[in-house]
Write a structure and sequence with these properties.
The chain contains 3 helices and no strands. The chain is mostly helical. The chain has one domain. It is rod-shaped. It has helices spanning about 5-80, 80-90, 90-95. The longest helix has about 70 residues, at about 5-80.
Length: about 100
């Protein structure tokens, strides 16, 4: 007479099913994590590119503004006569000079 340990057989089957389920769950988690990291890398690259473009535009704007200021200052300095410089000097500082 052969006796089978059905409890052990059922337990082994349940254990294998549980292990397979856990392996599938872990695989799904890894795949989801990988997808999230890939998406994050794409978003980061897009954000860096956008920031570079915006900073380039800002830098260009600042350089143009400074150039305009320098050109204006140059025109003013070229148009100012020495007589104007003396007459524009406050009287108190003129007395100190004399």
């Amino acid at each position: 007479m052969i006796f089978y340990n059905y409890t052990g057989l059922g337990h082994d089957l349940e254990k294998r099913v549980h292990e397979k389920y856990e392996a599938e769950k872990q695989r799904a988690i890894r795949e989801a994590e990988q997808a999230v990291w890939e998406q994050a890398e794409h978003m980061k690259a897009a954000a860096v590119l956008k920031a570079k473009e915006e900073s380039s535009v800002d830098l260009e704007r600042v350089v143009k503004k400074i150039n305009r200021q320098h050109e204006k200052a140059l025109k003013v300095s070229q148009s100012v006569s020495p007589v104007f410089l003396v007459s524009a000097t406050p009287l108190k500082s003129l007395n100190r000079i004399l």
